[in-house]
Design a protein that fits this description.
By secondary structure, the chain is mainly β. The chain has no helices and 14 strands. The strands form five sheets. A four-stranded antiparallel β-sheet has the order 6-1-10-9, with no helix packed on it. It comes from Prunus dulcis.
C-alpha cells in the first residue's frame, strides 16, 4: 500500500513581540499548525501568562501530504471580541527535508509572523522533525543467516546472532 502522507512532529516553542492593533498582547495566546490546503490542524494550549512573549513548548503531530510544499503556523489571541489571528508564518518543507541532513533530524527554526495586512508582527520559534518509519525487524536464525555467528553468552539478555558490517578503509575491506 502506498503512503500518501508522512508524520511531522512540530514543537511550538514560543513566540516573541506579539501585538494586536499595534499594542503588545497581554495574555491568552495559542498556536495552530495546519497542513497546506488541508482541513487537518493541531492547536496548542492557551498561554495565559506569557503576554507578548508566550511559551508553549508543546509537541504537535501532523499528517503532512507527500505533495505538500509547506505548512502554516498561526498565532491567535483570545479577546473579549473572540479569537483573533495575530500572525501567520508559512513554513516551506524544503527548509527541513532533503539536503545533507539525515531523515529524522531535529531542526530548530524561527520565522517572522505576518498579520492579515502582511505587516511584520512578531516571531515564532519551532522545532521540526519528520518521523522516520520504523523498520520491521526480520527474525533470522543462524541457519538462515549468511553473516554473523551465534552468541554463546546469554547473560546480556539472551542469545542471538551478532553480525558484522563490512567497512571500507582505504583500499582494504575489513569486517568489524
Amino acid at each position: 500500500m502506498a503512503t500518501t502522507s508522512r508524520k511531522l512532529e512540530i514543537r511550538v516553542i514560543s513566540a516573541e513581540n506579539l501585538q494586536l492593533d499595534r499594542k503588545p498582547i497581554k495574555k491568552n495566546a495559542s498556536a495552530t499548525v495546519r497542513a497546506e490546503k488541508d482541513s487537518q490542524f493541531r492547536t496548542t494550549y492557551i498561554d495565559t501568562e506569557g503576554g507578548a512573549y508566550p511559551k508553549w513548548n508543546e509537541k504537535l503531530v501532523l499528517d503532512l501530504p507527500l505533495h505538500a510544499r509547506s505548512f502554516t503556523v498561526e498565532i491567535q489571541c483570545k479577546t473579549s471580541y473572540g479569537v483573533r489571528t495575530i500572525g501567520t508564518a508559512k513554513i516551506p518543507v524544503s527548509d527541513f527535508v532533503g539536503g545533507f541532513v539525515p531523515e529524522g533530524y531535529l531542526h530548530f527554526l524561527s520565522y517572522r509572523l505576518r498579520d492579515n495586512r502582511g505587516e511584520r508582527n512578531g516571531i515564532v520559534n519551532i522545532s521540526v522533525r519528520m518521523q522516520v518509519p520504523e523498520l520491521k525487524a526480520c527474525a533470522t536464525t543462524s541457519s538462515h543467516s549468511s553473516m554473523g555467528f551465534q552468541v554463546a553468552d546469554s547473560s546480556f539478555g539472551g542469545g542471538g546472532v551478532a553480525t558484522g558490517v563490512p567497512v571500507w578503509y582505504g583500499a582494504y575491506q575489513k569486517n568489524y
